[in-house]
Amino acid sequence: MNTDDIDPKALFTFSYGLYIVSTTLGDRLNGQVADAVMQLTADPICVAACLHKNNYTAELLEQSRKFSVSVFSEDVPLPFIGNFGFRCGREHDKFVNCNYRMTTGGLPIVTEYTIAALEADVIDIADVHTHKLFIGRVKTAQILNEGNPLTYADYHKIKKGKSHANAPSAIFNAIK
């Protein structure tokens, strides 16, 4: 593939949000920041989350086959995002210093700096080169707090955040 024909700025025009995708396996909770989450269908309601194959959350999610998504609010501080985005869950308990609650399905949803959350059961996993696309059927969805969702563009422009090297959008770091 000739990457000279790809302008990363064109990809940056896509609308993205910023989310925490979480799962559990046994007594282990883990979650990570994700920008590639989207609703796929309305009946039944299905969503997809794209995670790097090497991420601990992807490893646990492939085994547990269930996940939650917490939607960041635009007032979330950068260090809070960093806890879920730049620390590995293999060595660090990401939930120890944040408010969260467990769903009836046994999944953590972050209740601090988030406006909504959902939980889903995995119905399919697609291999996408360096990433895995987890497709889930939504079981519950709820509004947690008033506010506006943090867009990925605002994360970069206002908060001056960077993308993790494993993020699908890591190419955006080069256009700052």
Fold blueprint:
Blueprint: H1 8-11, E1 19-25, E2 28-34, E3 37-42, E4 45-52, H2 56-64, E5 66-72, H3 78-85, E6 100-102, E7 108-110, E8 114-128, E9 131-143, H4 152-157
Antiparallel strand pairs: 1-2, 1-5, 3-4, 4-9, 5-8, 6-7, 8-9
Poorly predicted regions are: none
Shape: globular
Spatially, the strands of the biggest sheet line up as: 2-1-5-8-9-4-3
What structural class is derived from the secondary structure elements? alpha+beta
In helices, the fraction of residues equals: 10-25%
Order of helices and strands: HEEEEHEHEEEEH
CATH topology: Pnp Oxidase, Chain A
Strand content: 35-45%
User: What's the number of helices?
Assistant: 4
Largest sheet, in brief, is:
7 strands, antiparallel
Radius of gyration, whole Å:
15 Å
Q: Give the full name of the CATH homologous superfamily.
A: Electron Transport, Fmn-binding Protein, Chain A
Number of discrete domains: 1
What is the name of the CATH class?
Mainly Beta
CATH architecture: Roll
